[in-house]
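In the previous chapter we treated chains in isolation. Here, by contrast, the input contains two separate entities that must be folded as one system, with a combined length of 630 residues.
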Amino acid sequence: MAGFLARRLLNYLVLVVVASSLAYLLAASALDPRSNYADRTPKPPPAVVDAQLTALNLNDRTPLIQRYATWAAGVLHGDFGKSVTGTPVNDDLGRRAGVTARLVLLGLACGSLAGVLLGAYAAVRQYGWFDRLSAGLSFVVLAVPVVVLANTLILFGTWANENVFGRQVFLVSGEYSAGLDTGFWGSVLDRAQHLILPTVSLSLGLIAVFSRYQRNMMLDVLGADYVRTAMAKGLSRRQALIRHALRTALIPVATYFAFTFGTLLIGATFTEKIFGWHGLGEQLINSIFTNDVNTVAAISLLAAIAVLCASLAADLLHAALDPRVRAG
Amino acid sequence: MTLSEEELGEELIGARESRAPSRVRIVARRFFGSRQGRVGFAVLVLMFLLAFAGPMLSPWSYTDKDFTAFLQPPSAGHWFGTLQTGADVYAVTLRGMQKSLIVGLLAALVSTALAAVVGAFAGYFPGWPDRVLSWGVDLLLVLPAFLILAIMSPLFGAGKWVLFVIMLALFLWMVTSKIVRGMTISLKRREFIQAARFMGVPPVTIIFRHVIPNLSSLLIVDATLNVSAAILTETSLSYFGFGIQPPDVSFGTLIADGSRTAVYAPWTFWFVAGLLVITVLAVNLIGDSLRDAFDPTSTRPR
């Protein structure tokens, strides 16, 4: 088991190093920080621009490989370099990573839990009204891109605020209201109001995917001998389904979880940008527009690490659910 | 049973065998036999008609600006209303739809072809080709595709949408190629492939003449589902300005513009969003029914 995990970890590490290096090289060759200075009035002299760019390790006249070496040496010491405005990338990223983590983890928890439960229930009642309804709904949800879903939720939120509640219940912009002074519970409530719609926007897609997948897996194991044996031993149908059928059916879903995580990060990018959360995803989109190579590379590295962690978590979950992995 | 009846029976059997239904016909019958398949197909045909024949019905073209109607609700003159610039929403939407459909179709074809070739080669040649290709696939799975496409977006520029299609396709094929690889490994042990190998057919010919055609059902279904995936990705990228660039329009750029005015001018958002969802839904329905039609063991109660 330890050997298996160590091998996986090593393989993932190599992948992350190569992936983030590729991301840096791509960003450094596709983005053009020099153009940021072209629009300034008065136009700075070329020598000044060159010196500034060199100081930030962004000068496109330095050979790419040399810039990469400087960047990689910095990253090895935990320094992601400086943004185009000269501020260290690290300071900003730490704060933003927290914002993204709060949004993604909550969305992930809600989405996967609800999806697994809905899928399992739909499988137990195969071809019942619930199964049909959930199948139809997940088909529709899978056809709606996050950008449309998020905007629709904002429109729904503002409509509901005006016509149903008559006050601001759903808050659609930012993570919390600035300058709010209502004590601890007041700010918790305020944060929850801000959280509802982005979380829904993130988790709906996950629910749709997971419920379809879980349903199919569950159907495969429902007729299995061991479920019948469990019931013959005296377990109730409910106990047999939850302890034996659901647990077995969760194994492939756990592997699938790793694949969805990358999608979730991207979904979070759109959700953050549209709902005005100042997280990593929003920063990624902004930094591409401002030709901020170092920030883009740093966020790519974090994304690769996040996908790696998700894959490791999936492996661990797999081992926890499937005794054969631990034995082997 | 008299002799003549027996002969008749044999003749009948013979006649049936000589006119054995082709695989295409079986699949087509099963596909159109399902309500899901019929509805999906009909809706998609309608969408294509709307996108390519629809613009002829309206007096406005997508470049026209009506300077007497800015941000007006739907009316007899402008069926879907007008934008802030005075452009006709109907004409602009159909123009964007054409682009999105073409981008989606092309990207799906390219990515499925890539998945088939890479997966089949990796599965057919164990050893270093397999290791290198599989490792490349893993690498592309670790790098979020959106991120790479977004970083490369400055290269796409106006009118370079073909490059965008290729880049889009480059990030859609990985999971399928893993499946193709697994299936190729098991196909390779089958008798007809072995026979071809021992007859001295070169491996590349075997892959293109025997392996890939045998995976056609998987690949067709995958290509269909990739169309919707490509349309959705294109929409998301173009929404943030990383995909189709102006003056070209697509679903994504239209939804981005529409979402800004959606609160007080709902027609700028809902027509585009609705058409997008209907198109993708139809493609997904077709893909799902095709999968059932190709799978001889699937039975669905209707």
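The mean pLDDT of chain A is 83. Chain A is about 80% helix and 0% strand. Compare these points with the single-chain example from earlier in the chapter.
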